[in-house]
Design brief:
147 residues; 6 helices
């Protein structure tokens, strides 16, 4: 068994049980965004979190241990995504990446937005022309240091 096998077990159990990620997150007591990332193999769970996830998805003991291992982050199978939804994020960065960079540097200086000290909130926004996806990302600014 490896971490990818555990992700497969979780997704299979989620489908079989008819669970929603938001419901799983409520049981764990953390955001749906972080819990989903953890269940999909991108975050490390502590023993208590791994036990909760293990109980929710009826995972074997070995799988619960794998949930506590630091994963290899980055789960896309290709450098340019082929899934249409994920590709739109790639497109968004291709079109607006230089704008993000220019505005962040202008506002904060030379540095990056952390993906480690980071949070995200994804919500459905009702709209007369069709519901909208609202994603708010907040990452700590990390300036480059002089040495």
């Amino acid at each position: 068994m490896n971490r990818e096998d555990v992700t497969d077990l979780i997704v299979q159990a989620k489908v079989k049980k008819g669970l929603k990620w938001a419901d799983v997150a409520t049981k764990v007591g953390l955001s749906k965004e972080w819990v989903t990332a953890a269940c999909l193999g991108q975050m490390t769970l502590n023993a208590e979190q791994a036990a909760l996830i293990g109980d929710i998805f009826d995972l074997p003991d070995e799988a619960r241990l794998w949930l506590q291992e630091v994963p290899y982050k980055g789960s896309l199978p290709t450098s340019v995504p082929t899934d249409p939804l994920i590709y739109r994020f790639y497109e968004l960065i291709s079109v607006y990446g230089t704008t993000f960079k220019a505005l962040i540097h202008e506002e904060f200086g030379d540095g990056i937005m952390s993906a480690i000290d980071f949070k995200m909130d994804l919500q459905r926004e009702p709209h007369a022309a069709g519901d909208r996806v609202s994603i708010v990302m907040s990452g700590k600014f990390l300036p480059y240091k002089t040495y």
